[in-house]
Amino acid sequence: MVSQANDDVTYVNRDIAPTTPEQRQWSLYNYLSLWIGMAHNIPTYLMAGGFIVLGLNWWQAILTVFIGNLIVLIPILLNAHPGTKYGIPFPVLARASFGVIGAGIPAVLRALVGAGWFGIETAIGGQAIQTFLLLIVPHWNHFSNTGTFLGMNLGGWISFLLFWFLNVWIIYHGIQAVKRFETWAGPLVLLLGIGLLIWAVSAAHGFGPLLNAAAKVHGAAFWAVEIPALTSVVGFWATLSLNIPDFTRFAKSQKAQEWGQALGLPLTMTIFSGIGVLVTSATIVVFHHAISDPITLLGHFHNVVILLISLGAVVVATLSVNVAANIVSPAYDFIQLFPRHLTFARGGLITGILGILMAPWLLISNPHIYIFTWLNVYSGFLGPIAAILIADYWVFRHRKLDVKELYEKRSQYFYERGYNPRAIWALVAGIVVSLIGKVVPSLSWLFNYSWFVGFIVAFIVYLILMYSHYGSSMTSN
């Protein structure tokens, strides 16, 4: 048990202390519904469609989503294990490899990506609210178009901020409120997708022309699209591959979280991406042009009751992924920086504010920017972090941690003034090698594999530096 009544109190508070047996109540269903809620979101719906725009055919696009999620499931399960075994969140797990203070480095990198995703998802949720207001408020369209700032008009900003407050309200009710919300929100999102698919098949009298369209890229051109696309799928959940201990620390057992995640992630991501492709294909028949955005598609419906229910489901869907994937971890990450002053709720509020300031919703307007820049660049940062966590816990320490010392200044995890320089050098090496292809054209292939390259380099460098310095595993009880 970690006590807060000592002179190292600045390194622990109630929100990041190890979970108690009473807190470990999350079952297989909770993790299954968590992933259903997170995977069934608008960017997932758009993902395979974006790959088709870039030249893949429908089955290549869906297969890419499935394989990418099988790959990213591996680091997710590896990093989930210590969360369940020791009841600790991601920033505290990172202390074992980066140092009690140095863990702030991966925590900040993860938090900034989370804030960016928060902005993207909040813009999507705001768009649904905007469509809702256009239906029920007279003259809203005229009022809404008054002025434009950072790519959104007045109505868009009002809708964005309304959705923003919904996210913050849930977070202010704590992590258990997140659990309760995800339990019922996840299945609701799946029902919306199935409903759209039934409509599409009925209205188009089939699945539309996309299923008959051949791939536009072949040979070397195919791999020039396929490899970055696969990396972007891995990068899509590279964030959760780090902070999954934030959720698995509440698991009843290893089996509950492992099976819940193994069933919840690859299948739901693939199914929802497939629904997006099939519905988009049908819209070509129904409306004579492709409508890939489900919110835009819902705006074409004339039954007000169905439309309002559908838009409500979109709002719930986006809330579901935003709260779980984009606020929970950054909230814990910011606590790592200032544990004496921040709480879970305050960390979530900081995330929300950064999500506004970063204005990352502009990224999803172009598939090339969204897939080849946003997802692949941050993959080059997060892949090395995942590698260091896994190398330290599974290889160097053989899954043995002294939990009490993770919160103390006078401990093996304090390294040199709170930082482990070997982890920092491994992180830098992984980032540089994975991203150098972004600025050196002859090495562009390294950037196309950014997550994989960064992971392999950081994994090897970290273990070489740690074994050369310590000789063998550091003592852990």
From TrEMBL:
UniProt xrefs under InterPro entries: NCS1 (IPR012681), Pur-cyt_permease (IPR001248), Uracil/uridine/allantoin_perm (IPR045225)
Location of the protein in the cell: Membrane
Domain of life (superkingdom): Bacteria
Chief localization: membrane
Keyword tags: Membrane, Transmembrane, Transmembrane helix
KW Membrane (keyword) present: yes
CDD domains noted in UniProt: SLC-NCS1sbd_YbbW-like
Protein name: Nucleobase:cation symporter-1, NCS1 family
Taxonomic source organism: Sulfobacillus thermosulfidooxidans (strain DSM 9293 / VKM B-1269 / AT-1)
